[in-house]
Model the fold of this input.
Amino acid sequence: MTGDIQRTLRTSTAPAAVNLVEPQEPTATSASQMSDWTETAGSLRSRAQHVYQDTTEFHKDLLFRTWQQRTNMRGKQAPASLLEELSDLGFSWRDLARMVGVSVPAVQKWRRSGGVSGENRRHLASLLALCDHISEHYLIQEVASWFEMPLTDQVPVTPIDLFAENRPDLILDHASGHSDVENILTAYNPEWRERYRSDFDVYLEADGAMSIRSRGA
Done:
């Protein structure tokens, strides 16, 4: 019995066989492998760009269709009702007249006695439908004030300007935040940088007052 125990101990405590084979160094990446990987990465990047473009266009198409459906629903209301709701949202008669493309007296006349053409009725319905959509989907509060706000500090272009130029698609892009402001401005006016370039800078005086000076000064 004792002999069996001793033999077991000698077996369990014997040193393990030593691995005399040296570990292999990692094989260096060959030029052909790098070329293959580069080609694969380029292909994936190209496919990703196509997918992004396709999904962007699909999303824009859905937004446009949704806006059109809302416009058709809003178009069932009387023009006076449309004007009343737009006024309640905070739009001035001046801004409404500009966006629809008529004079201020014309808008005031519509409110008092009607006489709105079918085209102008649709303009009013489409504006109110656009306000409905961006308020619900993008949580924009006080939407009329938002329409008055410039897209960027450097350029005085507002959603009012975009709507007046019949670009509700750009308003939706701006509201969603899915498109860069510079891209929106370029779509609105490719020469916007030159048009709105200023030769003056606004700066803060030592006494805390705002002042203006020439950039060449």
In short: Strands lie at 200-204, 210-214. The chain is about 65% helix and 5% strand.
